[in-house]
Design goal:
Shape: elongated
Number of strands: 9
Strand order of the largest sheet: 2-9-8-4-5
CATH superfamily: Immunoglobulins
Structural class: alpha+beta
Largest sheet: 5 strands, mixed
CATH class: Mainly Beta
Order of helices and strands: HHEEEEEEEEE
Strand content: 35-45%
Helix content: 25-40%
Number of helices: 2
Distance between the termini: 83 Å
Length: 173
C-alpha cells in the first residue's frame, strides 16, 4: 500500500507574496509619476529656478520671518472653513515685529489650490488694501475637500512664502 503524500503549500504562498510585492511596487511608481515635483507651486516659480536659487529663497524667508508676522483669516476666523457654492472672504494681516506700524509697502500674491492637483488652481487678486490688511476678492469654491491658500509676500528685498489650509464644506445656511 502506498503512503499518501501531504501537499505543502508554503512554496506557492511565498511565490504569490513576492508577486504581490512586485505589483505593489509597480503601482506605487505609477501613482508617483502622476504627481511630479515639477507641478509644485509653493514658491510661485519653476522647479529649476527654485533649485538654482534655493539658498537665497531660504535666507530671504528667514529674514522675512524675523521682521514680520503673518495671520490669515477665512470667513472671519483664523481656523475658518470655506463654503462650497458660496462667496468666501479671506484676508491676510501683516505686522512688523519691531514696531506696531505699517510703514511698509507689500506686494502680495495669492493662489488657491488643491494639494493633490493643479487642475483647480485659482490666482486670486487683492480686492482691497487697508492698514496692514490685504483682502482677497470673493472666492467661489466648487468642490468639497482640502484647499490651500498659497501666498507670496514681497517687502523690499525680503520675500515670504506661506500656506494656509482650509477645508471646504457645504454651506447649510
Amino acid at each position: 500500500m502506498q503512503k499518501k503524500r501531504s501537499k505543502n503549500y508554503w512554496p506557492h504562498g511565498i511565490i504569490i507574496s513576492l508577486l504581490l510585492i512586485v505589483c505593489a511596487c509597480i503601482y506605487t511608481i505609477v501613482e508617483a509619476v502622476k504627481y511630479p515635483v515639477e507641478l509644485d507651486t509653493y514658491y510661485f516659480d519653476t522647479k529649476q529656478n527654485v533649485d538654482r536659487n534655493y539658498d537665497k529663497i531660504r535666507a530671504s524667508q528667514e529674514n522675512f520671518e524675523k521682521k514680520y508676522t503673518v495671520f490669515f483669516e477665512i470667513n472671519g476666523a483664523q481656523e475658518g472653513s470655506l463654503n462650497v457654492g458660496g462667496n468666501n472672504s479671506a484676508k491676510i494681516v501683516i505686522n512688523n515685529r519691531d514696531k506696531n506700524e505699517c510703514a511698509f509697502d507689500a506686494d502680495v500674491e495669492f493662489r488657491l489650490t488643491r494639494p493633490e492637483t493643479n487642475k483647480y488652481n485659482q490666482n486670486l487678486t487683492v480686492s482691497n488694501n487697508e492698514k496692514c490688511k490685504w483682502f482677497i476678492a470673493p472666492v467661489n469654491i466648487e468642490r468639497i475637500g482640502r484647499w490651500q491658500f498659497q501666498t507670496k509676500i514681497t517687502i523690499g528685498d525680503d520675500v515670504g512664502f506661506f500656506t494656509h489650509e482650509a477645508n471646504a464644506t457645504l454651506d447649510w445656511k
